[in-house]
Amino acid sequence: MTVTVPEITHYAYRVTWSAEDAEFVGTCLEFPSLSWLAITQDEALHGIADMVREVVKDLYEGGEPIPEPLSSRTYSGKFNLRVGERLHRNLALDAAEEHLSLNQCVVRRLGDAS
């Protein structure tokens, strides 16, 4: 079995301000246990990217599974959601009033929220 090493620039990085640390913190969604603190946003981003590069290299050399970048994953466009009976009823009523299917109504609301 051939292991493909993902391009580390394809991972989902985020840099945010940490008031607690009084520094920027770089994180990578595919590696939630990793973070990098730095004085500037650029340093935090470069620091976490370098750390991810090293971790991916170590995983590869150790024959361990390497997380696939979120950007490379495929999504079906479907997911199941459980809601309470009251919310379900209210959504169904709203959908009927708007002459939409329940699915169309919920998709519209999710789109409006983002």
Task: Describe the fold and architecture.
The chain is α+β, with helices and mostly antiparallel strands. The protein has helices spanning about 40-60, 85-95, 100-114; strands at about 15-20, 25-30, 30-40. It has a 3-stranded antiparallel β-sheet, covered by helices on one side. The model has no long low-confidence stretch (mean pLDDT about 95).
- Architecture per CATH nomenclature, i.e. the level-2 architecture of the largest domain: 2-Layer Sandwich
Number of strands: 3
Helix content, binned percent: 40-55%
Number of helices: 3
Average pLDDT works out at 94
| Broad CATH class of the largest domain | Alpha Beta
Q: Are there runs of 5+ residues with pLDDT below 50, and where? A: none
* Count of domains: 2
The strand order across the widest sheet is 1-2-3
Task: State the shape.
Answer: elongated
Radius of gyration: 21 Å
The run of helices and strands is EEEHHH
Secondary structure class reads alpha+beta
First-last Cα distance:
40 Å
Instruction: Examine the coordinates and then state which fold CATH places here, giving the name of the CATH topology of the largest domain.
Output: Double Stranded RNA Binding Domain
Largest sheet: 3 strands, antiparallel
**What percentage of the residues does DSSP assign to strands (E)?**
15-25%
